[in-house]
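To whoever is on call:

I kicked off a structure prediction for a single chain this morning and the downstream step that reads the tokens threw a length-mismatch warning. I double-checked the sequence; it's 186 residues and nothing unusual in it as far as I can see. Pasting both halves so you can look.
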Amino acid sequence: MAILAQTKHLNTADQPGAGSVAELNGLAQASFVRVIGPIFEHSPWIAERAWAKRPFASAGALHRALCETVLASDEAKQLALIQAHPDLAGKATRAGTLTPASAQEQASGGLDQLSPEEAARFDKYNRAYRDRFGFPFVICARQNRKEAMLAGFEQRLQHSREQEIATALAEIFKIAELRLHDLIAA
């Protein structure tokens, strides 16, 4: 199976076309988790739970099953998923400790080319957001440029915590959909 050959060093950002949905449906749970687990940042539990919902008719059906798994989990699990995401242009970015997928995504949004003033604004907003909500600001960087992300901070800092949990999960689902698309051959 082509998909199994790529699981040893799988990186969803660097391994497009890793296999088909049919191949995923045939994987044992441990292999499925190894392949699909990285779709959600540091949260393989989602793939582990979704595996039982096989077979998936399409990539869209797989994505829905993964998202439904998150939505059916308790708030503590949902918050842990949100917490697994790095700050935008934050300490992990500067230290080079982002996952390869997150590093590529942040770069696609222009966060690897910030002026010192822009970096200071991101640091300020990251702190304010964490102070207000207790978790990092999550936005699909592949669908936004740095200017839109900064505007998003300003807008979303006005939301309630419940609104931000829902918004963060919706953004995570966008990120996961793009990562899944990168992973699965058309």
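Update from on-call: the warning came from a stale cache, not from the record. Cleared it. Sanity check on the structure: Residues 1-17 have pLDDT under 50 and may be disordered.
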